[in-house]
Specification:
Elements: H1 11-33, H2 37-53
């Protein structure tokens, strides 16, 4: 694609990135599990607003 920089990672670099993403997602899952229903609703509405602001 024009205008999109290309990236290449070594196998160890790619493994590091995948692990970092996995750790971050596990942390977020744990945090979300601790929220109550009202907090989840607020978070959902905030995400909708942020998506709209970002043009998505």
């Amino acid at each position: 694609m024009a205008g999109k920089p290309s990236s290449s990672f070594s196998e160890s670099g790619l493994a590091y990135v995948r692990k970092a993403i996995s750790v971050r997602e596990a942390w977020l899952d744990r945090q979300l599990a601790e929220l109550g229903d009202e907090e989840r609703e607020v978070l959902s509405k905030a995400a909708e607003i942020i998506d709209r602001m970002a043009g998505n």
